[in-house]
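hi! just following up on the protien thing from before. the input was this:
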Amino acid sequence: MSSATKHATPAAFDRKEAELYKLLDAKHLPRHIAIIMDGNGRWAKSRSMLRIEGHRSGVEAVRSTVETAAHIGIPWLTLYAFSVENWKRRPKTETSFLMRLLVKYLELEIPTLDKNNIRLQYIGRVWELPDDVQKKMQWAEEVTSKNTGMVLTLALNYGSRSELADAFRSIVHSAAKNGGLAHLLEKDALNEETISKHLYTSHLPDPDLVIRTSGEMRLSNFLLWQVAYSEIYVTETLWPDFRGKNLLEAIADYQKRERRYGGIGKA
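and the predicted 3d structure came back as:
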């Protein structure tokens, strides 16, 4: 790999991170990385701890991953933090703790995000979250709104099927104000581009790389429309143990692949 593809190693990196970064082609980093953060419960169980301790320890993994992504110049990072299914399938004590943890995370981390020029935003049915949580989220988004660096998106109360249902509902409402659904169909305007414009992620590029921790081989209702051509990297590492070096390892694996988008690979 020529020196022209190398950038200066971020000063904040430790020795292991610096060694991994040197192996990367800095000109061909994924633009958008999406992460399914999984394994908090198993991490806690393996240590005879309560599940909430796994969630609490997962915050450090978020901090390390976000900082590393920002340091190497990843433009967009999306983290699957809380799904619509979590409300239905987790005990109320756990979901309440997760909401309190989110508020605490925002209070503690926003100054660091702001300092690192990171802009925070959200996707999901955030309007269904508790009012006090929504207020803190709005505050955090406003504080970082003028930042021009990496865009960190938290998927909260998110589900891809819910997103698609909301998108179709939005399309129908929009059509009703512009000649009706029949008019939309006559114009052949109900296409992939139209659907994409009505998704929560309409302002984001599709992910280049999806990372899943804990070794599970599924997408768990995450960005199903958007990851049609994403590269998927699965690691056995449980989320609380995931750090910046693990992110760099995932990117190194990504750079070994050839993305064909349904075409024919290089000879």
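The chain has a mean pLDDT of 92.
The longest helix spans residues 92-115.
cheers
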